[in-house]
Design a protein that fits this description.
CATH class of the largest domain: Alpha Beta
CATH superfamily of the largest domain: Aminoglycoside phosphotransferase (APH), C-terminal lobe
Strand order of the largest sheet: 1-2-3-5-4
Strand content: 15-25%
Structural class: alpha+beta
Number of domains: 2
Largest sheet: 5 strands, antiparallel
CATH architecture of the largest domain: Alpha-Beta Complex
Helix content: 40-55%
EC number: 2.7.1.172
Protein name: protein-ribulosamine 3-kinase
Enzyme class: transferase
Number of helices: 9
Oligomer: single chain
Keywords: Kinase, Transferase
CATH topology of the largest domain: Aminoglycoside 3'-phosphotransferase, Chain: A, domain 2
Catalytic activity: N(6)-D-ribulosyl-L-lysyl-[protein] + ATP = N(6)-(3-O-phospho-D-ribulosyl)-L-lysyl-[protein] + ADP + H(+)
Number of strands: 14
Radius of gyration: 21 Å
């Protein structure tokens, strides 16, 4: 057993590839004699939920669109049998295939738009809107659970962020506006929708996309998944840029804008608001001003 590859990863990989010889390297971090590459990570005991959330998100993405995200190999919590030292016990671990990636190109952006629309965003939940376990958008815990309607689900997501901002303090006026959004805008824009709960990546910005150098195909990673309205998955991609316009054009060629279509831009603002509020929770600063501008526009468009 290689001394610098944890035994929990060695055991997991050898279930995949019996008899394989493993070596540690920089790229990939774990290399098999078969030529396959793996990446593993071990967290602190307090990070169990993050590891479970990412693993369950990847599992769902790989069912919906095989090959679009790195394949999950194993995850769990280190026990006495797989610990290399007493301090390992209780730590979460995560192992997936390694993908050597470059940036998303115009061509792979088109393929990503098509696959997201035709595969990921057609994979439906049988339990409603939400997700089985908490997931994390950045470091922010999304409580999830299951909801009968998208309105209820999205309202709970916004409520969770407002609760965190209230707890931090200093955001009283922002949170007051946020309550108006919950009372007026969310019901007005989301209640008329007739939609199915479909799988979302949840944090789909350019930093979580790439092109597999080996296959030339798009890859998405670091998901924060839940089942919701497909249009919500496009929000953070618009905010931070970096994803070519061909992605959005191809996406809507395969999955048209939801009705009422004339409210598409307002819904986009509402979905972008989640990420501005989340970045306010995480980083503060100018993100609070951006969130306020979004809310001003939405509240002006939806009269009391």
């Amino acid at each position: 057993m290689p001394s610098n590859i944890h035994c929990v990863f060695v055991q997991s990989i050898q279930k995949e590839e019996p008899g394989a010889t493993l070596t540690a390297s920089s790229s990939p971090p774990i290399k098999s004699s078969s030529g396959a590459g793996y990446i593993g990570k071990i967290g602190s005991a307090s990070e169990k939920e993050q590891y479970v959330g990412e693993a369950e998100s990847l599992k769902a993405l790989n069912i919906a669109a095989p090959g679009l995200a790195p394949r999950l190999i194993a995850y769990g919590v280190i026990d006495e049998e797989t610990a290399e030292s007493p301090s390992d016990v209780g730590k979460p671990y995560f192992l997936s295939e390694y993908v050597d990636m470059g940036s998303l190109t115009d061509g792979t952006a088109k393929v990503l738009g098509k696959r997201l629309a035709a595969e990921v965003h057609t994979y439906k939940s049988t339990k409603g809107f939400g997700f089985e376990v908490p997931t994390f958008c950045g470091a922010t815990r999304q409580d999830n659970g299951w909801y009968e309607t998208w309105e209820q689900c999205y309202d709970a997501l916004i409520e969770g962020l407002l609760d965190k901002l209230n707890a931090q303090g200093g955001y009283e006026s922002l949170c007051k506006q946020g309550q108006e959004i919950r009372e007026r805008v969310i019901p007005a824009l989301l209640r008329p929708l007739v939609i199915q709960p479909v799988l979302l990546h949840g944090d789909l910005w350019s930093g979580n996309t790439g092109t597999d150098r080996k296959t030339g195909q798009p890859i998405i990673f670091d998901p924060s998944s839940y089942f919701g309205h497909n249009e919500a998955d496009l929000a953070i991609a618009r905010i931070f840029g970096g994803i070519p316009p061909s992605f959005f054009k191809t996406y809507h060629e395969h999955l048209p804008k939801s009705e009422p279509e004339d409210q598409y831009e307002l819904r986009s603002d509402l979905y972008e608001l989640y990420h501005y509020l989340n970045h306010t929770v995480l980083f503060g600063g100018s993100y609070a001003s951006s969130a306020r501008r979004k809310m001003d526009r939405l509240l002006k468009a939806i009269p009391a």
